[in-house]
Design a protein that fits this description.
This protein is of the alpha+beta class. The chain is built from three helices and two strands. Strands 1-2 form a two-stranded antiparallel sheet.
């Protein structure tokens, strides 16, 4: 256990009472990382609105293209406009590679930070379920 702080409170009878706050010491993976999960959660939340629309557009247009072409019986020319949306061609030749790059990096960021937050939750639950020796 690690000492966090102490406070002094008055009891209803007027006597002073000291209260001490203790918390379990963190070792291993959590040592020195108290602020890291909070920072990751904040950055994940800040980036999410920026990548949401491009990722949804990419996923929806890619699925629609493939399903309409294969199951809908439409020709490649009939659904090409979906591939234009999917690949970011609508931004122009110069911006298309940046759209693809930023879309991919945004997806990787969300997957990695989401995975870190999920693993932190799992580790916290495992620590709570495991009785101390």
């Amino acid at each position: 256990m690690r000492f966090v702080g102490a406070t002094e409170r008055l009891c209803p009878n007027g006597a002073a009472r000291a209260e001490f706050k203790l918390e379990p010491e963190t070792t291993g993976l959590h040592a020195g990382m108290g602020q890291l999960p909070v920072q990751i959660r904040r950055l994940h939340g800040a980036v999410a609105p920026l990548v949401l629309t491009p990722l949804l557009l990419t996923v929806a247009s890619g699925m629609a293209y493939r399903l309409l072409k294969d199951w809908g019986g439409l020709s490649r020319d009939q659904v090409h406009w979906l591939m234009v949306l999917h690949e970011g061609e609508w931004l122009g030749h110069a911006a298309e590679p940046f759209y693809v790059l930023l879309n991919g990096l945004g997806l990787l960021w969300m997957l990695i930070t989401g995975g870190v937050m999920l693993s932190q939750r799992w580790l916290k639950r495992a620590a709570v379920k495991t009785p101390a020796p």
